[in-house]
Design a protein that fits this description.
alpha/beta, about 40% helix
Length: about 425
């Protein structure tokens, strides 16, 4: 019976659409490589591409392409209305969601209806747009540069370019497509960093923001408690230079290896599942009571999605210099690029859009002390909103069991308040 169920699920996957890893995984299933340790539902959600995953749950889904000033072609995804509530096409407030590092727009739907932020917002009456930063799985195209060539200029970017070039392009596209003059913005982790970059370097975009909600906000990282980042931070510039020398521009690309590992080692039936969970805790902070271990294979089916080495290196520089500055290229290139030996600070006072900072005590990457420093520097901070659970951690803002009640509901309430003001 199990074999028949798995087979039928694979047929359903073929009819709906494939992720890049689906053929490989399905072949292993047909050969019984997993034995009896597999759930057909988890397999399906892990191997469906994003469009088919959203449509599987009877939500509308659109795929758009946006080209930046410097030629990057970005994937922009949309859920224009809800399924159970607010399910008619009409005039709705627009919200743009921006993912963290090294993930993608799939962050907002992986956990399924009722849990994924994109679905919740659609049910609340929002026109939901989900951005993808240059270099991730949905944004691996360029007018002239080849992402397969690791030595090409394609990978010479950090979150500075994502904020300065990608976000404005996606905001302009969504507003033009919907006929709106402003939208809400919700960023997670790097999605907050890139917003602070945009709103400080291109302050005209503050007028296009109804409200900005920074979940696990990352700007200053002086008090970072992430062991891996802190260990690598002093070597950030050297590691990026070495990677460039040996021809490595990308890290953690989307790969069937992660999907396969998730299906073999991370299912509920696998005795190795606690190891999978421990890896998540190591990267994003330890919090077992918000961790849905059953969903790890689905997460690994869509994450990681790829990023440039320089994105990580830039965060390493932030930890080392204890400041929020543009990327440090080295003395000579800094003079050419910025006209100064030291990269300039991002001027947070230029950020006049209303910013709401949602943070937690247990977040090792967005320490409360650093969030407070950010709050004091912003041109228009609407306040700090602490998650009322001491152990709530970094990745819990996206995938936590109680993320809806602890974070999302308050974000939506604040969004609706701001709509009455504007």
């Amino acid at each position: 019976m199990l074999i028949i169920t798995v087979f039928l699920s694979c047929v359903a996957i073929v009819s709906c659409g494939h992720s890049p890893n689906a053929d490989y995984i399905e072949e292993l299933v047909r050969n019984n490589a997993f034995g009896a340790r597999i759930s057909d539902n988890i397999l399906e959600d892990a191997t469906l591409d994003m469009a088919s995953l959203v449509r599987k749950y009877n939500y509308p889904f659109e795929e758009h392409s946006v080209t930046t000033e410097d030629g990057y072609i970005l994937g922009l995804h949309r859920i224009p209305h809800g399924r159970d509530s607010n399910n008619a096409v009409g005039d709705k407030p627009v919200v743009l969601l921006m993912h963290g590092l090294p993930t993608s727009s799939s962050d907002h739907v992986i956990m399924g209806p009722g849990n994924g932020l994109a679905y919740i917002l659609a049910e609340e009456g929002y026109d939901v747009w989900m951005g993808n930063a240059r270099g991730n799985f949905f944004s691996r195209k360029h007018r002239t540069l080849n992402p397969q060539d690791q030595r090409s200029g394609f990978w010479h970017f950090s979150w500075d370019e994502i904020g300065n070039l990608d976000l404005p392009a996606m905001i302009d596209y969504a507003l033009q497509h919907t006929g709106k003059s402003a939208l809400h913005y919700i960023g997670f982790s790097q999605g907050t960093t890139s917003f602070f970059v945009m709103a400080s370097l291109r302050p005209e975009y503050n007028q296009k923001i109804i409200s900005m909600h920074a979940m696990a906000p990352v700007a200053y990282m002086e008090h970072s408690r992430n062991l891996l980042f802190n260990f690598l931070a002093p070597y950030a510039y050297d590691l990026e230079a070495l990677a460039r020398l040996i021809g490595i521009g990308e890290v953690l690309p989307n790969s069937e290896i992660f999907t396969l590992l998730g299906q073999i080692f991370c299912t509920d039936q696998a005795i190795t599942q606690p190891i999978c969970s421990s890896i998540f805790f190591f990267m994003g902070g330890w919090n077992e009571n918000q961790h849905n271990a059953t969903m790890v294979p689905v997460i690994l089916g869509h994450t990681p999605a790829g990023a440039a080495v320089r994105q990580f290196a830039h965060y390493g520089q932030s930890i080392t210099n204890k400041d929020f500055r543009r990327y440090d290229h080295g003395l000579l290139e800094n003079i050419i690029t910025y006209g100064s030996v030291i990269p300039p600070r991002y001027d947070l006072s230029q950020i006049t859009a209303p910013v709401f900072l949602h943070y937690s005590d247990g977040d090792p990457l967005a320490d409360p002390a650093d969030v407070d420093r950010l709050h004091r520097g912003l041109g228009r901070s609407m306040g700090k909103f602490r998650v009322p659970q001491a152990t709530f951690s970094h990745i819990d803002f996206m995938w936590g069991i109680d993320a809806k009640s602890l974070v999302f509901d308050r974000v939506i309430q604040l969004m609706k308040v701001m709509e009455t003001i504007n």
